[in-house]
Amino acid sequence: MFEWVLNLLGWSRQPKSPASKLTPEERSSARKSLPTAGPKIRQRTAPKEESAESPRFQRRRGVRPTKLPTPPRIVPAGVPRATETRTVSGQAATVVIGLDFGTHSTKVVCRERRRNNVSGVIVPFDSPAPGYPPAVSPSLVSIENGRLYFGSEALTHASGMVYRSLKVELIPGLQRPESEFPTGVSSKLLIAAYLTWALQQVEKNLKEFRDAYKLLNISAPMEYFAKNGIKESYLEIIQAAWNLTFNQSVAIPFEQGIRLCDAKHGIEAQLSQPVECKETRRFEVMPETIAPMISVSLDPLCEPGMYAVVDMGAATTEVSVFRLSERGFDQKILCYQDSTRVIGGNDLHRTDGGSSEAIERVKREVELQFCQTWERGFLIDAKNQHARRLWQKLKVLFSGGATLDERVESFLFQYNPKKQREDLGDLQKGGVVWKRNIPRDLSSKEIMSDDSLSFFAVANGLAIDEEHWPEMLRDIEPMEAPIIIEKPQSYWYNND
Fold first, then answer.
1. Which phi and psi (to 5°) does residue 312 adopt?
2. Around Cβ 375, how many Cβ atoms within 10 Å?
3. What is the C-alpha to C-alpha distance for residues 148 and 146, in angstroms, rounded to an integer?
4. Are 99 and 218 in contact (CB under 8 A)?
5. CA-based R_g, the chain, Å
6. What is the DSSP string of 290-349?
């Protein structure tokens, strides 16, 4: 019955194999006769005898292994020591020094490279001087009894020969006669001596970044595409100051009261050296028209759009027109036009109490420079309706000590087609904004007013490495003299 049920369900009992009828002894002998590979036997080698000097042997017995001294790295003579670097988050720290060598005063700002979102640091390297903003150094050199004095200390040695406005000496055609200098002394030598002293003082005050890898950017009164020899003169002087500060094989301490003969011997030896190529040197010269643009791009309050910057110092005035894109890692600065003129606050002070004709002449030169630069920049976008609308919201920023003069502000403001002034945080459509260029991303140990911070706009822009500098549009064809106008045309504000 049971077998029938299994067959009905499709199941059937399998017959037993012949092996199941074997006895246990026969089954064991049959298993041994089968061809098998057999188990794998792991061959173990005898442990190696460890040396008593091996680190593993010493750790097992609680002995701390000794480290062999690292052989010193040989640095060729004349090459800065790049091994003196500290690390931040596993990467070597690189600090960019922005040095604004001005006609009236010198300012310094430092910032870590590739960390542009970190606030720049204002570096005071001179004692306070009466009549100067905080954390700046007067651009002065005094020669008294055969010794040199720099900055604020030069003001206390006024009985000797005090040399001011040294920066102007590097502009072709504006050099002083040799009779105003002692025998064997030139303006280039005095500028190199001042910058060497300034760099050495900055090096002493950079306590946090004393061992970091350093780069230097300095500004010169020139346009981006200018070829007038100013940059070559600056590079010769900066290389001499750099080597006398950071090259240990030729460095000379430049302290207050250094003997003129010692300073002359060291500087002349470095000025005679050829300038290093751009790929190897760690210093660079930037046009003064470029640095304020970079400072504006770092300001978190500045929105994308068209900007014009008027930077008027004691002896030179720089005007630049540029477009700022959206903030971010790939933010771009596109420069439309820049210009430099040898006119500044000193010219205004010379006209104090003078004739109205002299004051009108300075006014006319400043107006003409600003309006021509503004107009030539706009002509690049004149055929683009969308770009013209961006120009309707042009924001004009002032920087430089001379722009604090009310006369300079009135020079430019009366030529504004809309004649509208307001803060950057409260923009209105179709209006031109006039505002001081105040770098908001700077930190300082001293409390500074907005007017004092505006003195550091150029140095703040210089403290950025070259890969973040603006992109330049090639200059358009120069206009004929009869076509040049003194006022920017206003039709494009109202006709679009």
1. -115, 115
2. 19
3. 7
4. yes
5. 37
6. THHHHHHHH-TTPPSEEEEEEEE-SS-EEEEEEEE--SSTT--EEEEEEEEES--HHHHH
Q: Are 78 and 247 in contact (CB under 8 A)?
A: yes
Side-chain-side CA neighbours of 295 within 13 Å: the count stands at 35
**Residue 308, strand partner residues:** 321, 396
Provide the phi-psi class of 395: left if phi over 0, else alpha when psi is between -120 and 50, else beta.
Answer: beta
- Reported as a single tens digit per residue, the pLDDT across 471-488 is 777 544 433 333 333 444
The token pair at 147 is: 């010794």
What 3-state class would DSSP assign to 52? Answer: coil
The tokens describing 198, both together, are: 């300034």
Q: Measure Cα distances from 332 to 59, 79, 111, 253, 337 in Å.
A: 56, 34, 19, 41, 16
Reported as half-sphere exposure (CB side, CA atoms, 13 A), residue 303 has a value of 12
Among 238, 220, 219, 225, residue whose Cα is nearest residue 283: 238
Residues in the chain: 496
Environment class of residue 357 by beta-carbon count within 10 Å: exposed (0-12), middle (13-18) or buried (19+)? exposed
Write the DSSP assignment of 202-267 as a string of letters.
Answer: HHHH--TTTTSEEEEEEEES--TT--SSHHHHHHHHHHHHHHHHH-TTT-----TTEEHHHHHHHH
Which among 157, 245, 237 is positioned nearest to 201, based on CA atoms? 245
Chain segment 124-148, per-residue pLDDT in tens: 999 999 989 899 999 999 999 999 9
CA gap 296, 279 in Å, rounded: 28
Sites in the chain below the pLDDT cut of 70: 1-22, 28, 30-92, 114-118, 228, 328-330, 351-356, 358, 411-433, 474-496
Q: Per the structure block, which two tokens stand in for 362?
A: 């300075």
Report the Cα–Cα distance between both ends of the chain, in Å, rounded. Answer: 106
Confidence (pTM):
0.74
